């Protein structure tokens, strides 16, 4: 499912934001590291297991990174799903490619 998500994100125009990755590795490895963030894995698992009429709910004890925020927005648009992510500070309600925080988090 991760490959399906990646393909749809590329169609939507997604490019990974690697400027938050502080590891001293090349760009391709940074993109791989970004794509394995827990939020992205949880969304892919939710797309597999949760019926389309039910929102995908994700709880996280850390703040969501800007790349994951962008990915979840695009996934909500590409797969026409409601996704709720609770991070350390607030709830993010993603629907039709937009977030309830208005990209201020």
From TrEMBL:
Superkingdom in the source lineage: Eukaryota
Single annotated GO MF: zinc ion binding
Domain DYW: 13-105
Pfam families noted in UniProt: DYW_deaminase (PF14432)
Family, similarity comment: Belongs to the PPR family. PCMP-H subfamily.
The name this protein goes by in its record: DYW domain-containing protein
Organism of provenance: Arachis hypogaea
